[in-house]
Amino acid sequence: MTFAERAPLRYPATVENPAGNSRFVLVCEHASHCLPEVWGDLGLPEDLRRAHIAWDPGALGLSRALARRLDAALVHAPVSRLVYDCNRAPDQPGAMAERSEMHAIPGNIGLSPEERAARTAAVYAPFHADLRAEIVRRIAQGSAPVLVTIHSFTPLWHGLPRRVEFGIIHDRDDRLARAVFAESRDSGLVCGLNEPYSAADDVTHTLRLQALPYGLANVMLEIRNDLIATPEAEEAMADRLAPILGRALAALPAPQGAG
Amino acid sequence: MTFAERAPLRYPATVENPAGNSRFVLVCEHASHCLPEVWGDLGLPEDLRRAHIAWDPGALGLSRALARRLDAALVHAPVSRLVYDCNRAPDQPGAMAERSEMHAIPGNIGLSPEERAARTAAVYAPFHADLRAEIVRRIAQGSAPVLVTIHSFTPLWHGLPRRVEFGIIHDRDDRLARAVFAESRDSGLVCGLNEPYSAADDVTHTLRLQALPYGLANVMLEIRNDLIATPEAEEAMADRLAPILGRALAALPAPQGAG
């Protein structure tokens, strides 16, 4: 029995601190390495099912630590990106990747259109509908939410070390990213604007989908995962980044009154 | 008891012909003048609750006639725009308009943030989640859907007659709009590109929300409502417009193979 035959399933987004008082809405698309039983092991050994190809280690812990400091809402995805990467549109190769870094993902090779549609309906569509609901509720109430997506990246990429520690990535609207970059200069971190990825790598889907249509200030953050490898390190990184985000937001022009 | 206290309500989008074989997905945000009882009469007399301020007369009939000719899916909203205009973001003044043309809408004046959020959750969020689900299912299956939103406008605006009969409106991506405009030259209709409205009037929210993030070809069509005032007129207009849409789509470069 294929997954599609067992559908419909629906994995809603997890929403923490929805009543948070700040304008920040934090998003963690790669929060979980959970592989629901219905998809089996995708043909991967356990170590790979818990490695960076399955999730962004440290990103959820850091996101929670930031949410507490900023009194922000946090929306995260409950399913491993091995099943569906919620930061990719369904036609992007990485949405249900057949390979990640040097590893083949056997359970994703040659998916039928029906299985692709079933995973999209089960994971991607509910995640983005639930995130959208959080965003539009705030807009309807007269707030101007600020979208910050939080990711981590590996210290090594195809065997080469990465120098950058804190990457700040923007799409078409670069206001908040440039402000975060400016406020990061004394952070003690090696910062990179549009490093180690950029919108040209098609990694800004959530920003395009959730922030740009509403004109919301937005940024994608990438933290090198060796710097957030323990709960203590996550907290320490949040101590560094929360004031940067606060100052960056304060440096933006006030939102236009709406409605 | 306010509406917010009676929430949560959820008015899903109506989806017709979801298995349609063409790439067209037709959208009619202003299909219905239905005012669910929970919102009362908004302080309007019955004639205004059935007038253009409440819906786009003829747009749904024309959409259905086009869907049959094109074998297209059709997604339409079940609630009057007097409650929530699904072609507006929650912070746009027209989302829950206090005025429309020369008429005040008493039931929309001074809405609390909670009532604005409740209407957004009841009408706007489910409509766009359901439309999104139709779109991403097609993308996941390897199709490249084409979004066409269908509207009607009044022959008179603040007492002045409008000359245009068929308006073709685009947002940032003008590929399909220009193709439709080119193919309309021999239609016998007075055509206008970005008439009687344009993106500068903030009328392209659905295109921005549903088509641009996925790079889908898209266009907004506006038909003068005196030309689609009867079922026969709707069918006759569909006879004119369906071949134009088909030729316009055929004139576009083939979509990039994806995923």
Strand elements of chain A, count: 11
Strand content of chain A: 15-25%
Number of domains of chain A: 1
Into which percent range does the helicity of residues of chain A fall? 25-40%
Give structural notes:
The structure is a homodimer of 259-residue chains. Chain A is built from seven helices and eleven strands. The first copy, chain A, has 259 residues and is an alpha/beta fold. Chain A has one domain: Aminopeptidase (3-Layer(aba) Sandwich). The first copy, chain A, has a seven-stranded mixed sheet, with helices on both faces. In chain A, helix 3 packs across helix 7 and helix 5 crosses helix 7. At the A-B interface, helix 4 and helix 6 of A face helix 4 and helix 6 of B.
